[in-house]
Write a structure and sequence with these properties.
The protein has one domain (3-178). It is 24% helix and 30% strand. The protein is built from 4 helices and 7 strands; from the N terminus they run H-E-H-E-E-E-H-E-E-H-E. The chain has a 7-stranded mixed β-sheet. A hairpin with a 7-residue loop joins strand 5 and strand 6.
Length: 180
């Protein structure tokens, strides 16, 4: 399978794992979030008749406009996939930048989700990249290091603010340093 798709599916798996089995804060030993989330995908997001179980988050790998009735949601976007100088025979030359667009019902929810992901990925920066050729049983290929995590609140123009779902939007950005 193409490396970009392997990375995208591996990041999706890591985020799903963070929400469904929250790791413990290494300083306090207490989980970052008190309860596990239900994580739903694009199919559930597109079905207007689907009713999610609280607490929940929609984790999407496609660019869709957020629906006010379907928040919170996280849109994953690999915006850059540049090559850097690297040793022949390794994948170290690929340094993808991952953007997570986090939409919440309010600023508190948006900031809590972004803060949780930032803290968990900072404290546990290793990300396993799997080979998803066989979707039923992915094979671990190598570990990527999560670097340069930033959270930026997004601002929008007044013409879009009346719609509501775009007003509470953060972007969490990080790069992956791929290691064999």
């Amino acid at each position: 399978m193409f490396p970009l798709r392997n990375i995208q599916l591996s990041v999706h798996k890591r985020l799903t794992d963070l929400f469904t089995a929250p790791p413990n804060n290494p300083d306090t030993g207490v989980p970052y979030i008190a309860t596990a989330y239900n994580v739903y995908n694009e199919d559930n997001y597109q079905q207007d008749t689907f009713t999610p179980n609280f607490p929940f988050v929609f984790l999407l790998m496609v660019r869709v406009p957020p629906k006010k009735t379907r928040l919170p949601c996280i849109l994953m976007d690999i915006s850059e996939f540049p090559s850097a100088p690297y040793e022949l025979g390794t994948r170290r030359g690929m340094i993808p930048t991952i953007n997570l667009h986090i939409f919440g019902k309010n600023r508190g929810e948006r900031d809590e989700l972004a803060g949780f992901l930032r803290q968990a990925m900072t404290d546990y920066p290793g990300l396993t990249i799997y080979d998803w050729t066989n979707l039923a049983s992915p094979v671990s290929k190598y570990v990527a290091s999560v670097e340069d995590i930033t959270v930026v609140p997004q601002s929008i123009g007044n013409e879009l603010a009346t719609e509501g779902s775009l007003t509470n939007w953060n972007t969490l950005t990080f790069t992956l340093l791929l290691k064999e």
